[in-house]
């Protein structure tokens, strides 16, 4: 925090542009945020890698007896309900961890009801208010410094992997993914069992 009346001076047009994509997970029970910060493309592979990093760094320690994982996600973006590669990488993650992964997507236009928006990213935005993002490390530090009086804490890790846009999976391989669609709104609600996976 800078002292009142001593703002950081910046050039209003010619400032440094920082490219970084945050992918966040919010643990409702622990009031804990986890952000995987990538300098590469925002892809389905990146989305699932973010979930994997949360599990390896936090989830498996916070919930050592877990057999299932419930993910609530928006309807679009890199983890959208119609992203076939998102489902492929989730199937791999289920096999890797032995977890049953149940996914529930919010309907289109309803992401504002996702708790991660109200309880994590809104607070991160407040932490960044009025601060120029001059580097990825500044971005990461501002995310990590996000706290609330109700107990929110945030861990942010830098993901230096390179993610390639445009990956595809064939219809045949996609049809073979170990997915079970719910009876109600099965396109938006489905489960991956750790029974099997595919490698492209």
Detailed description of the structure:
The protein has a single domain (21-192), classed as 2-Layer Sandwich (Nucleotidyltransferase, domain 5). Strand 3 (68-73), helix 2 and strand 4 (100-105) form a beta-alpha-beta unit. The chain is α/β, with parallel strands linked by helices and 200 residues long. The chain has five helices and seven strands; from the N terminus they run E-E-H-E-H-E-H-H-E-H-E-E. It has a four-stranded mixed beta sheet, with helices on one face. It has a three-stranded mixed beta sheet with strand order 1-2-5, with helices on both faces. The radius of gyration is 18 Å and the shape is globular. 30% of the residues lie in helices and 20% in strands. Helix 1 runs parallel beside helix 2 (84-97).
Give a short summary of the structure:
This protein is an alpha/beta fold and 200 residues long.
CATH topology group: Nucleotidyltransferase, domain 5
Shape: globular
Q: Average pLDDT value?
A: 90
The number of helical segments is 5
Radius of gyration from CA coordinates:
18 Å
Helix content: 25-40%
Distance between the termini: 47 Å
Strand order of the largest sheet: 3-4-7-6
Main sheet overview: 4 strands, mixed
Beta content comes to: 15-25%
> Using DSSP, what is the number of strands?
7
CATH architecture: 2-Layer Sandwich
Q: How many domains make up the coordinates?
A: 1
Report the uncertain regions: none
SSE arrangement, N to C = EEHEHEHHEHEE
CATH class: Alpha Beta
User: Which structural class do you get from the secondary structure elements?
Assistant: alpha/beta
